[in-house]
Specification:
The chain has 499 residues and is α/β, with parallel strands linked by helices. It is built from 16 helices and 26 strands. It has a six-stranded parallel β-sheet with strand order 2-9-1-10-11-12, with helices on both faces. A six-stranded mixed β-sheet has the order 15-13-16-18-26-25. Strands 19, 20, 21, 22, 23 and 24 form a six-stranded mixed β-sheet that branches.
Length: 499
């Protein structure tokens, strides 16, 4: 029997669709349902590699974790990874289909409906409920032709829709009424409930507005969700994490906020630790004197390195490294640390350029993408990162480039099974292709230990923690808030009735 479906759409980007979807999935799991997330098309630079070596958006990974199931690329069959302001890499069921301009993709996307439906129907055979998530707003009238992610997807899945509005930005009633007014008669009939999200204050003051809203659009409000202080992965382009500028902890970690930053979830283990501040830095003046500088992943290494060069951040990082500051690059950030970057096939910007020269290696961008889960351990290391020697890790790789060490270069890690060397280190600088390398408690604890040692602090000054257990607590807190503030009986009735 095929799964029943319900869909969360929003009046705009950042209305809270991903979090609401995760919360509803967690509630359903607690209620005994086998439920799974589904988003036909996601645009994000935060991605994940499944056990099969396939690439998907991290928002659906978060939702799968909330549902207590293994992430599957079928939960996000189309992933768009922006390469510039007008184009994206198009990934279909986990594999790169190619780079397209926005206009070319708009014409092409309807051809992806069979791929989307194969993924959807496969999931529907395995689960009781699918909770679908839309993207942006269903009322983008210039984009409604051949829609595959909002009402178009709801129609294909026969999924009733809950429409969420963001009251924190103001104008939530105009958002909801305006969105419904711009829908066709058929589409309006599919909207079975509204949700007011991110509410702060006394709900009784809001009640008269809700009564007027329901009278105006003829659709019941099924939830008023408070502004939640849960620590759960955000949609990458809209995260509030990037607003962190001030150092407030015993340990100060600075992450270079690249224009096309990707997989900043690599730093989440440190963000959740008491006594550690993680700052996202966009100018040389903000860098100051951190205990550790991270160069994160990026969808366009060469253009983002050029940006660093032009805004003075490259010079600031080089100056800090010259004074002995610890610097670590991950994926694209690792590539930047080398001596040269070459793009003979035009995978990124084309041509070649010099790197930062902090690691003795060259990088060439190839046409084939490396996608794999991996585990291993840090090799014997001397210098600033010596405390990592022998520490095990697990994670995943997503990259187009191949980096080759030059004479005198020392690899950072050994991969399990093959024993293959990976990454590089030199004194107080190191880099790796492995995302999620600090998700394991041992690796995170080792970094804290070496930073405390450098500052003359005891290791107890900052405590590492179990990230997996921490995530579970956050998902339960999210579910508690959804259960308390949403009429789940109505949600289940809407689910059963369908459209």
């Amino acid at each position: 029997m095929a799964a029943k479906a319900i869909m969360i759409q929003g009046t705009m980007s950042n209305a809270g669709k991903s979090l609401l979807t995760g919360g509803i999935l967690r509630v359903m799991r607690q209620d005994g349902y086998r439920a799974a997330p589904f988003k036909s098309q996601n645009m994000a630079l935060n991605s994940f590699i499944t056990g099969e070596g396939l690439e998907m958006g991290r928002a659906q990974v978060m939702q799968a974790e909330a549902a207590g199931i293994e992430p599957s690329v079928r939960m996000n069959p189309i992933l768009l990874k922006p390469t510039n302001d007008t184009g994206s890499q198009v990934i279909v069921n986990g594999e790169v289909r190619g780079n397209m301009s926005a206009r070319d993709y708009f014409r092409y996307k309807k051809e992806l409906i069979p791929d989307i439906m194969r993924a959807y129907e496969s999931l529907a055979e395995e689960y009781d409920v699918l909770v679908l998530e839309g993207a942006g707003s269903p009322a983008e009238i210039n984009l409604k032709t051949d829609d595959i992610v909002n009402m178009g997807m709801a129609r294909l899945a026969k999924a009733p829709v809950l429409l969420a509005g963001d009251i924190d930005r103001g104008g939530v009633f105009a958002q909801l009424v305006g969105t419904v007014e711009l829908l066709s008669k058929e589409e309006r009939a599919m909207v079975k409930g509204t949700i007011i999200n991110k509410f702060r204050g006394d709900k009784t003051i809001l009640d008269p507005g809700i009564a007027m809203l329901e009278e105006r659009i003829g659709i019941p409000t099924v939830g008023v969700i408070p502004y939640l202080s849960v620590d759960i992965d955000d949609e990458d382009s809209l995260t509030e994490r990037f607003d962190r500028r001030e150092a407030g902890g015993v340990l100060d970690i600075a992450v270079i906020r690249l224009p096309r930053i990707s997989n900043f979830t690599d730093f989440r283990p440190f963000e959740a630790m008491e006594g550690v501040s993680v700052r996202y830095v966009t100018s040389a003046g903000q860098l100051a004197n951190p205990d550790l500088i991270f160069l994160p992943g990026t969808k366009n290494t060469m253009e983002d390195l050029l940006w660093m060069r032009q805004c003075g951040l490259e010079a600031a990082v080089l100056k800090a490294a010259g004074k002995g500051a610890l610097v670590m690059g991950i994926c694209g950030g690792f590539q930047m640390l080398g001596e040269t970057l070459s793009d003979p096939y035009g995978v990124e910007a084309g041509g070649s350029m010099r790197g930062m020269g902090l690691l003795p290696m060259d990088t060439v961008f190839e046409q084939q993408k490396t996608r794999t889960q991996t585990k291993g351990s840090f090799r014997p290391i001397d210098g600033g990162f010596s405390e990592l020697s022998g520490v095990p890790f697990h994670g995943y790789e997503i990259h187009m480039g191949i980096s080759s060490l030059k004479d005198g270069g020392a690899p950072l890690t050994s991969l399990a099974g093959s024993g293959q060397a990976e990454g590089a280190f030199s004194g107080n600088v190191c880099g790796t292709y492995v995302h999620g390398i600090f998700d394991g408690e041992e690796a995170a604890r080792a970094v804290l230990g070496l930073l405390c040692k450098r500052k003359g602090l005891s290791k107890e000054a900052v405590q590492a923690f179990d990230l997996a257990a921490y995530k579970e607590r956050q998902y339960d807190l999210l579910a508690d808030a959804v259960r308390k503030n949403m009429d789940m009986e109505s949600v289940y009735r809407i689910l059963e009735a369908g459209i």
